[in-house]
Amino acid sequence: RKEVEQDPGPFNVPEGATVAFNCTYSNSASQSFFWYRQDCRKEPKLLMSVYSSGNEDGRFTAQLNRASQYISLLIRDSKLSDSATYLCVVQTGANNLFFGTGTRLTVIP
Amino acid sequence: GAVVSQHPSWVICKSGTSVKIECRSLDFQATTMFWYRQFPKQSLMLMATSNEGSKATYEQGVEKDKFLINHASLTLSTLTVTSAHPEDSSFYICSAQGRGTGNTIYFGEGSWLTVV
């Protein structure tokens, strides 16, 4: 079983739509959780860390469910500029970092 | 925010030659650096993890004699692809974590390697 599983998509949504991505992880001892955004041919950039209490940054909301071992990312009012691949990243211990395969989002005019 | 710089951004080399990629943390001390490879339309694949001053830990299936990693200082790690072959052509990215970054991992800009 993979450490981190993520639906690769693609998700094609119209502008203004709300879209949600989920990511599951297998190690219950995982400590830190992140969502990264990766544009084509570029490096991943931190979108937001994910905390147990959930966190929101503008149109983006991230949540962590430890009991079910998944994290989610919700994007409201999608913009064309949100088109990218969203990577779920789970860290277990200082040096153990696991990536999901990424979910490709395309926002359509 | 913390900055990680990677160089070169693009490199083309002949088959059989070696290529060195540098990864620098510009405004923090990177106690841990990670090296990844990403083939087109695939996710990042961790190659190795290096802690400053110690030997890198390689992931299964990654040849340590082919991909030489040096993390001699708290701000610099290098990846050398030795005797490169066309199948080594890929996007190589480093990331760093350390003092002052909390749990956040920052990525370099990536290096496109094409072996001809």
Q: Can you walk through the features of this model?
A:
The complex is a heterodimer of chains A (109) and B (116). By secondary structure, chain A is an all-beta fold. Chain A contains no helices and eleven strands. Chain A has strands spanning 4-6, 11-14, 19-25, 32-38, 45-50, 55-57, 60-65, 70-75, 84-91, 97-99, 103-108. In chain A, strands 2, 4, 5, 9, 10 and 11 form a six-stranded mixed beta sheet that branches. A five-stranded antiparallel beta sheet of chain A has the order 1-3-8-7-6, with no helix packed on it. Chain A is globular and about 40 Å long. The termini of chain A are far apart. Chain B is mostly beta strands and 116 residues long. Chain B contains no helices and eleven strands.
- Count, helices of chain A: 0
Number of strands of chain B: 11
The radius of gyration over CA of chain B amounts to 13 Å
Distance between the termini of chain B: 37 Å
**Average predicted confidence as pLDDT of chain A:** 91
Low-confidence segments of chain B? none
N-end to C-end Cα span of chain A: 38 Å
How are the SSEs ordered, and which strands pair?
The complex is a heterodimer of chains A (109) and B (116).
Chain A: E1 4-6, E2 11-14, E3 19-25, E4 32-38, E5 45-50, E6 55-57, E7 60-65, E8 70-75, E9 84-91, E10 97-99, E11 103-108
Parallel strand pairs in A: 2-11
Antiparallel strand pairs in A: 1-3, 3-8, 4-5, 4-9, 6-7, 7-8, 9-10, 9-11
Chain B: E1 4-7, E2 10-13, E3 19-25, E4 29-38, E5 45-51, E6 57-58, E7 67-73, E8 76-81, E9 90-99, E10 106-107, E11 111-115
Parallel strand pairs in B: 2-11
Antiparallel strand pairs in B: 1-3, 3-8, 4-5, 4-9, 5-6, 7-8, 9-10, 9-11
Quick rundown:
Chain A is mainly beta and 109 residues long. Helix content of chain A is 0%, strand content 54%. The termini of chain A are far apart.
